[in-house]
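Re: your question from the hallway

Yes, I did run it. Sequences:
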Amino acid sequence: MGQRTIMHIDVNSAYLSWQAVYNLQSGATVDLRKIPSVVGGSQEERHGIVLAKSIPAKKFNIQTGEVIWQAKRKCPDLVVVPPNYSLYMKCSNSLKELLTEYFPTIQRFSVDEFFLDYTGMEKDYGDPVETAHKVKNKVREELGFTVNVGIGYNKLTAKMAGELKKPDMVHTLWSHELKTKMWPLPVEELYMVGRKTHKKLKQLNILTIGDLAQTDVKLLMGKLKSFGHLIWCYANGQEESPVFNGSHVPMKGLGNSSTIKFDVEDRETAHKILLALTESVATRLRDADFACRVVAVSIRTNELNTYSHQRKLLASTSITKEIYKVVKELFDESWRGEKIRHLGVRLTDLSEKEIIQRTLFDEKNQERYRILDETIDHIRERFGKYSVVRGIFTDGEVSPLIGGVGEEDYQMMSSIL
Amino acid sequence: MKLLRKPVEMVAWFDYEGNTIPVKFRLLNEAEENTVIKINKIVKKELDKFAGNKMMKYTCESCINGEIKQMEIRYELDTCRWYLYKM
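Structure:
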């Protein structure tokens, strides 16, 4: 097979520009993209971090993920708008619709990122750079927001190319351009290199992507195991995954977590929140037709220390009650009595729901609980997710289902290309 | 034309092909009275998809107080609401 041509489409400061365009359409006079502004969660509920920022806000050195009051200190006139996930979903869908007019193979990588396979289309549709410009301009004219298009010979280089300079640009990153365009960048710009890896690489005196590419892979594998090999390949532009049509990503696990409005100090309240989280996550598990074998609980204290605890079960399960029992045990075993700010429940080691190994120690009424869960799921699907709730939540202190962004098909960013 | 974005009550006509044609509408004026405006001519019809929110834009002409005026009317497809957007 010859060299592939892959494009990566990325919306420039997605949440913010979508909100800005929407506001302009509904008659606003100021363009959020032209003033220092951020999209952020509400401060009262303590979800107060910056989710997206405008380019003028960037000049004040405001970082995504920063706490809002910190950002406000950097720029007192900062405009904060709440997130609106149903709007983002709508924008993302209309972008996808527009792209399907041009390309047969589209992978929605996250709500604001798409991969396209342009291989073999050059003959009929012309130079990829020209096509990219055409698509980019069409998006701006029809949908009102700007995108960056990256063109490369695999998904990784396409994605890296899209990050080069923003906004409203088209960039290429072919194999002969790797050394001049990608290697001089600081290593934390590379896909999959986050805060922690960055720190480790710094200790090895690896500062740019070029340094990483030229490091002996054995050294990296010694320090970072298989992940070292992965990022070394990425630094050298080696990546071979195909563009999946649709948004298919093989699921390895799923979880829900939430920052709580108040600090939790007692076991009962924590259990209640964990139950609400378990309800959400178990519903999602059953909805995807999976059963899980490993249950994990994570706790973040008010001093922002995070720890987690997990256990492998005797047999796979998808029953809320069984999962919750383990969740409670895990929590009781690991909690050291601090004030809790954030709780999470995660399920991994998934298998098909149909094949469940029975054990001698199964709960007596397993089959009945399974039917109960199925019925509850069914009622919630038909009459809304709060139509049946557990009695323990009737005091209204804790929401009966916690986790997620409240938008059904919302596609989160993934770490698998 | 000035940006107004006033919600209006609309009489419209839907044809076999699914085209929507605004006929006349009424809105509250400054004195809180209903004024009816009849649309004499549709100059242009366009679909606006900004931010994924579909809106049908109509540029029309009407006779108001003996004077022909241009205006823009919008129909928001998701909510089925009509707006006098610009006049």
